[in-house]
Amino acid sequence: PQEIESGESEEESSGVNLMEFSDEILLHILSYVPCTDLVLNVRRTCRKLATLCLDKSLTHTVLLQKDYKVNKDKVKQLMRDIGKEIYQLNMAGCYWLPSSTIDHVTRCKNLVKLNLSGCHVTSRHLSKMLSTLQHLRSLAIDVNPGFDASQLSSECKATLSRVSELKQTLYTPSYGVVPCCTSLEKLLLYFEILDRSREGFMLSGQLMVGESNVPHYQNLRVFYARLAPGYVNQEVVRLYLAVLSDRTPENLHAFLISAPGSFAETGATKNLLDSMARNARLDALQLPKAWINGSGLLQHLKFNNPFYFSFSRCTLSGGHLIQRVINGGKDLKSLTSLNLSGCVHCLAPESLFRKAEDDIDSSILESLVMSCCNLRHLNLSAAHHHSSESIGNHLCQLLSRLKHLLSLALPVCSITDVAASVEKPPTASNSVPQTFGRKVRIGIQTYPRNLADQANQKIESSVFWALMGSLRFLETLEIIGSSFSSAMPRNEPAIRNSLPPCVRAQSVGDSEVAAISQLTYLQSLTLAQLPNILTGSGLVNIGLRCQHLRTLSLANLGMMGKVVYMSALMDMLKHCKCLRDLRLEQPYFCAGAQFFQALSHCSSLQRLCIVSRSGTLQSDAVMSFMANCLEVIMCHMFMGESLTVCKNLQQSIVRSFQADRPALNVVIFPLLHEDLTEVIRDVPMRHLDEITLFKSRVAEEPPNLWW
């Protein structure tokens, strides 16, 4: 009561009463409050808010996909209270909700869009649910082992026949509900099928051949397929493509296949591409590298107003890029997203006699920048893009002209000043082999701890400093070593050795990191394999000035035998009040009391992942951290501790906090244990894809691919 009285007196003295604001302003404020809180809590405070919280602008679209506090009781009550008012419902990644809770979606009779990716839904539950949703036009689901299309009722199939947008994640070889969707205009397929079952049996994509129905693609406008590593995924996607190869839809304008490794072209896929070249005018394109390399396909494809291109890992040369794709700079102002990750020759005139480490041709990059002046997302990672000594033609100087960039991924060796990389003698840390071996004691250069002192050095005159200063509205930045590979596996054992960094990258360190602090609106930052990190002082500047930072991923910074930036990292974390996701990958990382005490300052933190060969942890410190940080719902640690230590800590966390945190997901396991891949397969796909596995995410998919 005392607190309420003091609050009222302060309100009276200032003359401000929230309830005196107009309805329009209050509705705008309430739009930032999670729907569950609005309906179940806020609307019970007063009559005015009771009315406003049920306004159509707030109940039309309900987003539960990252509301980790929502439990089965809240969902049931929400559906009872406003189910009929919901037209769009996103429950993607709500892996902790039982299927009986998902069944309450049947109360939302007017649903038009429904996203259940990552939710527990069997074919029987799906049939019951969709039978009541006659207005549904957009659907996202998972297809798990045991899915049986024959269990779908005629009413369910009638609903599916009206669905025009389908996103389907496959964990087993199947067509899923695709054959029932006869009006498809957008089809997104995510293939996450493992080559072996849990029992160790080899799976085959041919299991689905016996299904009587085939997909209906005649109205298709968008086809997207993303494959996880594995032969079975390739087998299954070929069966989906077989129908397309017979006849290309007349209105197809986006065709995208993301496939890691080698995905060979066949006669059927060649027929499909030939048909597309004759009949389709595309706005978005991504193909497996084997389908593009050495072929004249790009010369024959026709584009309308392209907004997305991905040539990730292709051997496409800069000459071909300019001639066949950019078309001499014509009609490419529509392009907003470009992924050239792993295209080692894309900034060189030809690739036949060129080494990957040779200097780039700045005229090609200049043509690219001029032609695609409205780019918002650009990925140039996983390649050696070395600038020449020509004045004014450095890669950073040319990229600074792209004033609309929101996300950018660059290799470490591309941001160094040419003069510095050529003239600067190797420091003591550069001479240390970048391998896991016996620790080497070396002298550490004293680096200034504040931004003003660093500015007095070379930093403000560097091309990277100027680039960061020109991209004031950048929200996502990735600086990744061209030879970096994560120790965290996908479907294989953990990688034990890493390749040394590029020679040009040897001078990139603390001063370049400090330059990033100019990005006031930065929300996501990834730094991997920066060899010349000596103290990590630049991290402190980022923590102080980048107050919107929500996602931070650091990997293999400085020398490998010691975590030289630990003190600076702990100082940085004390300022990261908005940080939600933290991923750290560093050998010999000590996750002890001091680290977790600093991390406890990150009051908004939700997900933590630490990957460390020979790393150690203190169980008591972890438990104390989990008790202090009430928002944390994911704790993944892959360290050098014994299996017994890991299991005991994991069980203690689950036992202590699962009841109050329904979405809690804890995996603590030895990084080099032979059963790691079995443990990984049980991690919810949302966490695995967004944080646990390291990858470049800039321009990974077309913008607004799904809502």
Automatic annotation (TrEMBL):
Tell me which GO cellular component terms the UniProt record holds.
SCF ubiquitin ligase complex
Alphabetized Pfam families for the sequence:
F-box-like, LRR_FBXL18
Where do the F-box domain residues begin and end? 15-62
Concerning InterPro entries, the annotation shows:
F-box-like_dom_sf (IPR036047), F-box_dom (IPR001810), FBXL18_F-box (IPR047948), FBXL18_LRR (IPR045627), LRR_dom_sf (IPR032675)
Gene Ontology biological process terms from the UniProt entry: SCF-dependent proteasomal ubiquitin-dependent protein catabolic process
- What's the protein here called? FXL18 protein
